[in-house]
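User: quick one - fold this with fe (ii) ion bound?
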Amino acid sequence: MTKEARVSQRAMVGWYDPRVLMQSGYQVAISNVFGRFSDTRLIEALATQPQAEFDYSQCSGDFWLDYVADVGDGWNSTYAVASAMAQPTLEFGDAGSREVTQPGRVLVFGGDEVYPYPTRNEYEVRTEGPYRHAFAGQPRPDVFAIPGNHDWYDGLVAFSRTYCRPERGFAGGKTRQTRSYFALKLPANWWLAAIDLQLGSELDEPQVKYFQTVASHMDPAAKLILCVPEPRWIYEAAYPSHSGYEEESTTRFLEDQVFKRKVRVFLTGDLHFYKRHENAAGVQKITSGGGGAFLHPTHAPETARLRHGFEQRAAFPDEQTSRRLSWRNFLFPLINPKSGWLYAFLYAMSAWLASARLQAADVVDLPTALGAALNAAIRDPLNGMWLLTILSGFIFFTDTHVRAWRIIGGSFHGAMHLAAAFMVGWCALLLTVRGLDLHYGSVAQLLAAGLITVVLGAIAGSFILGVYLFISVRLFGRHANEAFSALRIQDYKQWLRLRIDASGALTIFAIAIERVPRRWRATTRGGEPTFSAHDARATAPRLIDRVKVSAGP
Ligand SMILES: [Fe+2]
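Assistant: Sure. Structure tokens for the protein plus fe (ii) ion:
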């Protein structure tokens, strides 16, 4: 394997690594507070780029299009999907009902093209590189993309360089769009429109004008597929009291004011699993975010029935598997070893501040030490403020929109950590004073106790967080994102393959890989470097769902 190949194969992002936590928090805060203002030059520049719809309506034979979202995390997952997608054919079923699918003439990225935050280099290493190697020696599709929230964290700078410059292309294939949204005219009077909602905001004026112009070119009987950056139909069911998740306003505006027709198929990512909801009229709402990022749970929160008569028809992985995977939260310290630094710091600081006012007589036994620690928390303003800050932090972190639960759940979680910090500090005292026979308050005893607190605090704190996340996601259906980003599961990946056949019918194939390869062998194909899987435990791509959308009115 070449050196270049080794360095490009990234592990899954460690979301609880303090460095990633701090940078993510900073980027989210900055982009949410200033995002709408800081990027006006870029947005204006993009909006003034000429762009019409892109015409694929004259393509002969069956027309194929691949749709993948939430890519660009670890190498194994991203590359497994890309290389399966690049196979000349993928066949499913038996002799009785055999389906032969082909790679798309067009590849649509549905949002979150890179993790944890966008830079030109991260797009190259985590996304474009894998797709370049995967399609080595194969015909390359034309590539289109809309941004998700992760693409927006730098104000869309790296995204627009990667996808909106037709002169540079993507991974050896062609790019054509010059803006962060686009429309495709497909065969048999099908159209695909893909919108950019920035960070959960509304459509901007140039975008509305673009789609109004596109709509004026559409035949009255044209059928519409709409790609959106997030499944608001799921979020509004999961977070009914949260404003900003109402799907209806944007969808109704687009259907009534812009396209003047009902959308037949909605496609999105943002949640890293596969779920398909359908109503009695056969309208499809498909969430397909399995392109590479860590798995989200399908069992929580409960969203089997949505508004307007939409019901869940398929999910991958199934809910039983999803529930089983949540047990891995008990392994939190092992899966997220760097998270321990945060708790080591919190626990050591708590012990340090508490010990400042304690005398040898205060720590002779557990009840006396507990009383003295409580007394110190009340009497010492610095100590008290520190503990209150920790408690508030855990209340802020709690994922619920019911304020009472937030306070109860957050306080309970924070109190568990404070109790653990006390016990860790107490153990450190016992071990150093009675175990090692060091003089209480001596430099050696304090340093030894500090070291023990750091080590035990890192393990205990991470474990308590894992237990808290497990209880939240299993019993209350909350912290789905936090509980599963912690697991960094690279398996259960999937993408969509769309076919428009000679009759004009649209068939959507959902293709999944249950276990992605862990080992790869460098090779060449058509003179280009590529990688083949070298892992007997990896599973082959399989068809998990298929839905036919009729060509009728
Ligand atoms: Fe995502």
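One thing worth noting: Residues 403-435 form the longest helix (33 residues).
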